[in-house]
Amino acid sequence: MTVAVDVDAFLRHVAIERGLSANTVAAYRRDLTVYSAWLEAEGIGDVQQVTPVMLSAFAVHLGTREESPLGASPLAASSLARMLSTVRGFHRFLLEEGRVEVDAARDLRPPKLPSRLPKAISVEQVAALLAATDGDDVAALRDKALLELMYATGARVSEAVGLNVDDVIDTDVVRLTGKGSKQRIVPLGSFAQEAVSAYLVRARPVMSAKGRATPALFLGMRGARLSRQNVWLIIRAAAERAKLDIELSPHTLRHSFATHLLAGGADVRVVQELLGHSSVATTQIYTLVTADTLRDVYTTSHPRAR
Questions:
Q1: Using the 8-state DSSP alphabet, how is residue 75 labeled?
Q2: Less packed terminus of the chain by CB within 10 Å, N or C?
Q3: In the predicted model, is pLDDT for residue 40 greater than 70?
């Protein structure tokens, strides 16, 4: 059996049995294409020939790819970590399927990545951004509803554009579909409720009439489902109108949602559930962002802090 056949079997497994998204499966495919090409260049035609030493050599190869016969550029630490993670998952699958007797990638470890704090903006900056979408025309009503909902729920951009009208339940709850098609229920605050309601009544019917019938909640000006690229443009335009001299992205609202909840005293487990994180360790990085708040409280409260 060839490496290509094993790779195809793994990709079918993660797509069908594990239900991973098309984007994730495509990323796995790209990573394993690089791995397969390296194996071929090394004269390895069967995964049973792969040893831990070979995999260590592959990791070194990825870090110095400008010197490789494939002529590629070196990988960033984050990309290297992702690719080695894919290769580990592939070899674990081979062991589970009985294709190999030993998991050659068991001890393969990616480089330790520097810890990066999520980028969040202040409550005042969020308020300015949302105020910049005020208006009575259909585009303004949609943009207001979109940004209010994203900040109110911490939705990823893919989750926001993937929403259907029926996902807004009883006006005060929204059903988000996240990674791996996992669904979660998130409340909508009063500001988001008002904005979404105004959009559904006064703007969406106008937009919908310009295109084919679609269940999508957020529509473009031609009546089709709003794209992720359009959300980027909407946020950047609002930031310019608000005169926020900072780089914003759809994920900025998600980070700000989590940071502001924790700063307000929300339990990290609750925030984990709202964000749809599978591990609380992913959510806990936001607790570092609130260190300034803790420092301020300490300074003003402790008798010997000043």
A1: P
A2: C
A3: yes
User: What whole-number distance in Å separates Cα of residue 75 and Cα of residue 61?
Assistant: 10
- Residue 123 is predicted with a pLDDT of 94
State the DSSP code for 35. H
First to last CA, the chain: 71
State the average pLDDT over residues 280-297.
68
Cα 279–chain centre separation? 14
Q: Cα separation of 134 and 123, whole Å?
A: 17
Catalytic residues: 156, 179, 251, 254, 277, 286
State both tokens at 165: 């009208």
Phi, psi of 146 (to 5 degrees): -65, -50
Mean pLDDT of 158-181: 93
Report whether 31 contacts 83 (CB < 8 A): yes
Cα 203 from Cα 217, distance rounded (Å): 11
CB atoms within 10 A of CB 276: 22
Q: Compute the average pLDDT of residues 288-295.
A: 61
> Which residue, 165, 167, 2, is CA-closest to 99?
2
